Amino acid sequence: MIAKKMKPYLENNSAIRAMFEEGKRMAAEFGADKVYDFSLGNPNVPAPQQLKEAIREILDEEDPVFVHGYMSNAGFEHVRKAIADNLNERFGTAFSNENLIMTVGAGSGLNVCLKTLLDPGDEVIVFAPYFLEYGSYIRNYDGVLVQVAPDTESFGLNVSDFAEKLSVRTKAVIINNPHNPTGVVYSKEDICGLARILEEKQKEYGHAIYLISDEPYRELAFDGAEVPFVTKFYENTMVVYSYSKSLSLPGERIGYIIIPDEVEDSENTIAAATIANRISGCVNAPSLIQLAVAKCVNAGADLGFYDRNRKCLYEGLLRLGFTCVKPRGAFYLWVKSPVADEKQFVEAGKKYHILMVPGSSFACPGYVRLAYCVSYGTIQNALPEFAKLARDFGLG
Amino acid sequence: MIAKKMKPYLENNSAIRAMFEEGKRMAAEFGADKVYDFSLGNPNVPAPQQLKEAIREILDEEDPVFVHGYMSNAGFEHVRKAIADNLNERFGTAFSNENLIMTVGAGSGLNVCLKTLLDPGDEVIVFAPYFLEYGSYIRNYDGVLVQVAPDTESFGLNVSDFAEKLSVRTKAVIINNPHNPTGVVYSKEDICGLARILEEKQKEYGHAIYLISDEPYRELAFDGAEVPFVTKFYENTMVVYSYSKSLSLPGERIGYIIIPDEVEDSENTIAAATIANRISGCVNAPSLIQLAVAKCVNAGADLGFYDRNRKCLYEGLLRLGFTCVKPRGAFYLWVKSPVADEKQFVEAGKKYHILMVPGSSFACPGYVRLAYCVSYGTIQNALPEFAKLARDFGLG
């Protein structure tokens, strides 16, 4: 008697659950320090001390009826203003609190955008490889996911295939920058190229096409890579953000969406998104943590931690003969599988207690994803095991 | 370009927003202490001191990577176990952590249940008067809301109309106990009567009918009223709970659903609900507050506060000649409008700075709802204004 729409998830879920259980089983059997789990995007960096102090201050100084009470469905006004001001300062934008809606993380933010926009049958374009959950989110509103083939040279935006996949049914396009799972950072030129095509097609089809920019890794960029602020390059843009990675708060479910004034019919779109946030059942983003992040707008991720991991793992694997995309953002390394069926490679890794995610979990077989948001020690200890794995596949 | 499904909400929303704005405008014009706002279910009782101490303890003693990190989509196991143990102790149930899924409040919990169960066109029965948001939640999954007429004698469960509204398309029934907006508490006999009908109809139709019991006011019962634990009386029950009222945490969005082993195909149903929680975009309930409520399973609402308000307002209005349903639970008083069109009565109240919600907002015109979760002073100061209002309508 479970809804028909939920049944396929149940079947797929068992595979994911089996992987998770395997990790737990291995940790129990061999000891957690002897298992090299690169499968999860759960930051190993603690939330900044400033956040802890912010929570304490709020609990000590504010009225609990205010701290834990209902506020506007879009979030506390002063919280949205603090974040808008910070964005304006950093990116030269001109957002007011009205342009921001606080959400239950980026997952909920994406759902709010899609619920606001999609009619059944509307197409949403995503670039492979991509976070498979985008598909679940699009199906929630009976939308149709249309996939752009990966550019396996650079793993940048495959604009030629993109132009072909656009159709009169395209309602939205999702990009993710910096990129999970490849670690690629799209440049200003990449975004401008995308925007040009979208503008042309909007004219041709005579309706808006929305660019939804999913940016939980915005602050995680290395080697001086700049992450362009997409609203400046394309009018019908919605930005989805989460504090999961920048403040290491993935469990807290706190983020926001931005709907700029430049978006078509922005007033109604903002109102509809605020209602979507409410009727999804979320009602509003969690209150205490909203207040806390507003006090931490200038706090950032420990970039040095991730950068050291990045270099150690990337250079270590290159030395062993692996082929990897050079990661410039997020905390993922995208490695070419030495055999076409990357699931075989993932399986072989388990022998050495190395846990990786197959590229097919991102609609891009032939590759694997390593999340290097683990401790530095895990990477150091994993490299000799990767060396054995490399030998098994005739590398080096 | 907003989704067609969202458009009716935009139109209705302006009315609700206008009401909210009016309250703010009145507070600014006349002073907050001269406005008697009985419109909102935002508890005026602070969260218990124990909660604040629990949060402090967690921040001081636990690893922030654990406190703010991802956990199982169903919630921390030890949190679910602590809650299950507490329920088992209080109600003689036999839940394990597996039967509980922590959710982003009851709103999200209801959505998780409905997403798990509903195919398009499935009917969900609700008893008028009811929280209109149920309709939004049901429409989220293309379900059809079927309304049982109110029993305007007792405002109990109108079982005769209920039996007529059940059909082969009925997938679920939502009840709310203690009841918003009437303050009624359904007894064990009421629940048993409902269960008997449901069991018969399940047999007749040859499929499960789920009873979804929405219980955010479970602990708010007065005069020794007992709130029956529904899973003990009907097998296909799902319970939805929130800490919004009992711990005064409405903004924190923390609650849970219970899916007992007795539910048909419970293992798959629990798995599907856990996935629904994830793919709705919530992923999991907020982590810090999950940990905090687990340390407060024995903390409760300040019943004395609400009881004093209840008596003062109920008795005060009776003395003025109003007709009210005697409230035995939640924190609402359901008052018969002295004129058929209760909106006229609500409008007249504004002259005396009294804000009430018309019964038509609960699909039950002719009545108004007063939320008495305000300060005692507000009630005391409002009574002379109610006296003027009563005189205007020839009462007393």
Describe this structure in words.
- The structure is a homodimer of 396-residue chains.
- With 396 residues, chain A is α/β, with parallel strands linked by helices.
- The first copy, chain A, folds into 2 domains: 136 residues, Aspartate Aminotransferase, domain 1 (Alpha-Beta Complex); 246 residues, Type I PLP-dependent aspartate aminotransferase-like (Major domain) (Aspartate Aminotransferase, domain 2, 3-Layer(aba) Sandwich), CATH 3.40.640.10.
- Chain A contains 13 helices and 13 strands.
- In chain A, the strands form 3 sheets. In chain A, strands 2-8-7-6-5-3-4 form a 7-stranded mixed sheet, sandwiched between helices. Chain A has a 4-stranded antiparallel sheet with strand order 9-10-13-12, with helices on one face.
- In chain A, a hairpin with a 6-residue loop joins strand 9 and strand 10.
- In chain A, helix 5 runs parallel beside helix 6 and helix 11 packs parallel to helix 13.
- The radius of gyration of chain A is 21 Å and the shape is globular.
- Chains A and B meet through helix 1, helix 2, helix 3, helix 5 and helix 6 of A and helix 1, helix 2, helix 3, helix 5 and helix 6 of B.
